[in-house]
């Protein structure tokens, strides 16, 4: 259902507010670069610090600007099941094509708790839903068995896997139906996860190099394995540079250096250390971004 290069898009700010013009331009930039989907209000979009009104506005803008050119997969997860239901209902009403739901963070629910959380959201919201497992952020790691059980719910159509565990990715592909989409959630592992049976990537790097991510996924899709492998290796340095500080600080800084957004974050995120900013700028020059 969802495949290829999907961008986990940043949320631009200006003077403490959503920079709607910059956001519109960025959406058009990544679509022109060939992405096959857009995720607003994910981790990269600073979802954890957006107010409900800002969260809803970001999704509304994305749906309106995208205008059905590519799928919009709205980030609607929360550590509160009630809040996740509320945000997911809004995404459906706004016209999003699917919802991406992170595992509840901080609470550290059991596997049964995770299952019940996702089952409750699925029962309350009739929209395709993609699980999002990123234990390094949330403090909880969804087990393969939990993913497989959840995959049997009709509205749960895939998973963004960012555990860094290729064995787990392989087991999920093996143990779920062919139409359950496994998406990479870690740019450094996009190609390896495709090799394991994944069908695409929710990418941070696609904010600045959408054409390169699209080329990697498109090459894989047409079975041009060597081209996909070569692009993967070429992107290793930028993928690493975009995580030298907490995401989305480096990618937003990169976009600011490219003149696409303001270098503005919501606290507790803050500007990069100068040494890291200089290192990032050097990498961006090598890739022809600035």
At CATH's second level, what is the architecture?
Alpha-Beta Barrel
- Radius of gyration based on Cα positions: 18 Å
- Helix-strand pattern: EEEHEHEHEHEHHEHEHEHHHHH
How much helical structure, as a percent, in the residues?
A: 40-55%
| Order of strands across the main sheet | 4-1-10-9-8-7-6-5
Q: What gross morphology would you assign? A: globular
Low-confidence stretches: none
The CATH class assignment is Alpha Beta
Description:
The protein is an alpha/beta fold and 290 residues long. The protein has one domain (4-222): TIM Barrel (Alpha-Beta Barrel). Helix content is 47%, strand content 13%. The chain has 13 helices and ten strands. The strands form two sheets. It has an eight-stranded parallel beta sheet. The chain has a two-stranded antiparallel sheet with strand order 2-3. The longest helix has 15 residues, at 52-66. The model has no long low-confidence stretch (mean pLDDT 97).
Topology:
Layout: E1 4-8, E2 13-14, E3 17-18, H1 20-32, E4 37-39, H2 52-66, E5 73-75, H3 81-94, E6 98-102, H4 111-124, E7 129-133, H5 135-138, H6 144-151, E8 156-161, H7 166-175, E9 181-184, H8 190-196, E10 200-203, H9 210-221, H10 225-234, H11 236-241, H12 249-257, H13 274-286
Parallel strand pairs: 1-4, 1-10, 5-6, 6-7, 7-8, 8-9, 9-10
Antiparallel strand pairs: 2-3
Helix pairs in contact: 1-2, 2-3, 3-4, 4-6, 6-7, 9-10, 12-13
Concise account of the structure shown:
This protein is of the alpha/beta class and 290 residues long. The chain has 13 helices and ten strands.
């Amino acid at each position: 259902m969802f495949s290829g290069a999907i961008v986990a898009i940043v949320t631009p700010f200006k003077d403490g507010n959503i920079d709607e013009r910059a956001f519109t331009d960025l959406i058009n930039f990544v679509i022109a670069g060939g992405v096959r989907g857009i995720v607003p209000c994910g981790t990269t979009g600073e979802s954890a610090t957006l107010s409900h009104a800002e969260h809803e506005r970001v999704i509304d803008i994305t749906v309106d600007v995208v205008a059905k050119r590519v799928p919009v997969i709205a980030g609607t997860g929360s550590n509160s099941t009630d809040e996740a239901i509320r945000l997911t209902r809004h995404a459906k009403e706004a016209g999003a094509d699917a919802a991406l739901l992170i595992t509840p963070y901080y609470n550290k629910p059991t596997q049964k708790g995770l299952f019940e959380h996702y089952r409750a959201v699925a029962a309350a919201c009739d929209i395709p839903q993609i699980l999002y497992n990123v234990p390094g952020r949330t403090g909880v790691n969804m087990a393969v068995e939990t993913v497989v059980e959840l995959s049997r719910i009709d509205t749960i159509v895939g998973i963004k896997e960012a555990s860094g565990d290729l064995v787990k990715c392989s087991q999920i592909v093996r143990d779920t139906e062919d139409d359950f989409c496994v998406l990479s959630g870690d740019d450094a592992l996009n190609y390896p996860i495709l090799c394991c049976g994944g069908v695409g990537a929710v990418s941070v790097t696609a904010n600045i190099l959408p054409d390169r991510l699209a080329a990697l996924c498109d090459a894989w899709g047409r079975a041009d394995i060597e081209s996909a492998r070569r692009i993967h290796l070429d992107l290793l340095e930028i993928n690493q540079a975009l995580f030298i500080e907490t995401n989305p600080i480096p990618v937003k800084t990169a976009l600011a250096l490219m003149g696409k957004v303001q270098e503005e974050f919501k606290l507790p995120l803050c500007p990069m250390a100068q040494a890291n900013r200089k290192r990032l700028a050097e990498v961006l020059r090598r890739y022809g971004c600035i």
